[in-house]
Design a protein that fits this description.
By secondary structure, the chain is α+β, with helices and mostly antiparallel strands. The protein is built from 10 helices and 24 strands.
């Protein structure tokens, strides 16, 4: 029987707050997904170094171990949740403290980079090499609040970049290098394909111009082609270098097949599978390790309020990502088989199921922020704009010139 959303109680602020301040273990959502193309249609996992997929045997029941393939990693899911939050922020659905740097004047294609889309969030070297209020970012009041933050006093990070406390942070770009502060992820999510089988990759091309390999061409000094041997690049003997039209994307490509290699690692063959599973987990004990004193003053009620804000932000991120759909990449569109409730898991193993949509999640987040502010928690409502250092802009320019020369 297919479950529908109206079968479950709606999650609300009180339920979430009680879960955070109590002894519950986690919120969990397990979503079963199928290829949009239907049973038997291929999906394409992400490729890793060497063009391979991430295969793994997993136990899915007490007596069943099956082949699985990673369709979306924890890191990728975190990025998708952050992008969903950024879209919700820009559309005015929620307001999140953000730092951003605008490269539009010098590099329109880069545009604005925020702490939600920088790879290492507020700890990213992009922000490290920026100026705020005439000071290097990490020497500014905002930067110092971040640099000095730790799990015993995360108030500064909560104020300026709370999503870093949700998705994790390692300050490896600072002066301490690998010894910089670390905050574990409190929410993790991944998608795996179950009972997956590797496929083969086929390719072919029919040239509408009918150009064949018998048509001899020559390579020029600038990497182009010519029919004139006098214009051609010369070898050590001074003879023109011959080539084939196919080297310049002209002509037919005969049908070819790439078959899976060793260790079930096809280059580009895609996979078929029984189904996929997205597992999202919010750890409440991880949240409870974070403390939020203000000066020498620390209150349990304020700690709980800040933790509830972070829990509501994590759930909002998961719901906004889910409502954007599961088009993971080219030829990897998945759809849920049915609505998957959020499960509140108690320490004794008991489970309560709740419904949560984006509008409700946004309202819970707003209530949580309001409550935290009432108890004195600082919260940066306005976006903070940083200015890139000249040397950073020069580095981008030099890198582009070097890449252009290499490509030539």
């Amino acid at each position: 029987m297919v479950a529908s959303a109206n079968e479950f109680e709606m999650l609300n602020f009180k339920i979430l707050s009680d879960a955070v301040t109590g002894t519950a273990a986690a919120f969990r959502q397990i979503t079963r997904l199928i290829p949009a193309g239907g049973t038997g249609s291929k999906v394409y996992p992400p490729t890793h170094s060497g063009g391979v997929y991430a295969w793994e045997k997993r136990r899915i029941s007490e007596d069943e171990i099956v082949p699985t393939v990673l369709l979306d990693s924890v890191q990728s899911q975190a990025n998708r949740m952050e992008m969903a939050l950024l879209e919700a922020h820009r559309s005015g659905k929620i307001k999140i403290p953000l730092l951003q740097v605008d490269f539009s004047d010098d590099f329109p294609d880069i545009g604005i980079i925020t702490t939600l889309d920088a790879p290492h969030r507020i700890a990213d070297a992009i922000f490290r090499d920026c100026i705020l209020n005439g000071k290097k970012f990490r020497e500014s009041d905002v930067g110092m609040a971040f640099v000095e933050a730790n799990i015993r006093n995360a108030t500064g990070l909560f104020r300026y970049c709370p999503h870093a406390l949700v998705f994790g942070l390692w300050d490896s770009a600072g002066s301490k290098g690998g010894l910089g502060n670390k905050f574990q992820r409190v929410v993790v999510s991944e998608i795996v394909g179950v009972q997956a089988e590797s496929g083969v990759h086929t390719s072919s091309r029919i040239d509408p111009l009918g150009i064949t390999r018998a048509a001899e061409v020559y390579e020029t000094e600038n990497g182009d082609w010519t029919l004139d041997p006098d214009e051609a690049k010369k070898n050590n003997k001074g003879d023109p270098i011959k080539s084939r039209p196919s080297e310049f994307l002209h002509g037919n490509i005969p049908p070819t097949i790439e078959v899976a290699g060793v260790n079930r690692s096809p280059l580009r063959g895609g996979v078929t599978m029984d189904y996929a599973v997205q597992t999202t987990l919010l750890s409440l004990p991880a949240l409870r390790r974070l403390r939020f004193p203000i000066g020498e003053d620390e209150e349990t009620e304020r700690n709980d309020a800040a933790r509830t804000v972070l829990a509501s932000l994590a759930l909002a991120a998961a719901v906004h990502m889910r409502e954007q759909g599961y088009d993971l990449r080219s030829r990897c569109l998945l759809i849920p088989e049915c609505y998957a409730p959020f499960e509140l898991i108690e320490n004794d193993g008991g489970i309560q199921e709740f419904y949560l949509d984006a509008d409700t999640a946004d309202k819970i987040f707003e209530q949580a922020v309001t409550r935290a502010k009432e108890l004195g928690m600082p919260w940066q409502d306005d976006v903070i704009n940083l200015e890139p250092e000249n040397r950073l802009k020069e580095l981008v320019t030099k890198s582009r010139i070097s890449r252009s020369l290499k490509e030539e």
